[in-house]
């Protein structure tokens, strides 16, 4: 594996963690939004990642993180009886998103630490490449 592959591996991981931070921010922003039905209420979103590792034979070696997509959470929505609320349905219920704020905060911290770790990998790789170039002086 070439030292140059480290840049693409860390770059793909940083891109994936950036998407994870964006979905977490979206979930936190909509944590208190209210809907009048299950269909119109916000559902928590979660990115799906996969390890990307192609053939080790030949020159087309590719590693990293692949974002498979963003899926909606299947956790049931919370219903609350508030007949006076303008968004209440005909039975007097409003629907709250299935966003767990504590889980989202933990997810945000984890994504931010993973992003920082990949930045450190890039910095260390750059320093190693520079040290290798200085050997020839």
Automatic annotation (TrEMBL):
Listed InterPro entries: Flag_bb_rod_N, Flg_bb/hook_C_dom, FlgC
Domain Flagellar basal body rod protein N-terminal: start-end pairs: 10-31
Main localization (coarse): other
Keywords: Bacterial flagellum, Cell projection, Cilium, Flagellum
Residue ranges annotated for the Flagellar basal-body/hook protein C-terminal domain, each copy included: 92-135
CC annotations in GO: bacterial-type flagellum basal body, rod
Record GO biological process: bacterial-type flagellum-dependent swarming motility
Family statement: Belongs to the flagella basal body rod proteins family.
Entry protein name: Flagellar basal-body rod protein FlgC
Originating species: Thiogranum longum
Taxonomic classification: Bacteria, Pseudomonadati, Pseudomonadota, Gammaproteobacteria, Chromatiales
């Amino acid at each position: 594996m070439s030292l140059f592959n480290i840049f693409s591996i860390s770059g793909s991981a940083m891109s994936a963690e950036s998407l994870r931070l964006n979905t977490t921010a979206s979930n936190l922003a909509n944590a208190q939004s209210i809907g009048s039905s299950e269909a119109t209420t916000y559902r928590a979103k979660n990115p799906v990642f996969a390890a990307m590792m192609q053939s080790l034979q030949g020159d087309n070696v590719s590693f990293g993180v692949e974002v498979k997509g963003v899926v909606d959470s299947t956790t049931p929505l919370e219903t609350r009886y508030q007949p006076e609320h303008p968004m209440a349905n005909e039975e007097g219920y409003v629907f709250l998103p299935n966003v767990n704020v504590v889980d989202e905060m933990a997810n945000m911290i984890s994504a931010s630490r993973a992003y920082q770790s990949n930045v450190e990998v890039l910095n260390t790789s750059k320093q190693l490449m520079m040290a290798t170039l200085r050997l020839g002086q």
